[in-house]
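Posting this for the archive.
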Amino acid sequence: MATQTQTVSASRAGILPVMFAVVLGLGIITLTGHVQAAALHDAAHDVRHATGFPCH
């Protein structure tokens, strides 16, 4: 019986990161689909400057 409990725990532990990635990915796609293009460009531009990555 202990083996069955460990198997269930291992499968649940494996599915949580996958579910998190799916929810995060769908959220990003949904948000970027509804935001104005200029706002996305400005946000990406600011992040590039903040990290020191040249963008011009």
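Residues 19-56 form one domain. The chain has two helices and no strands.
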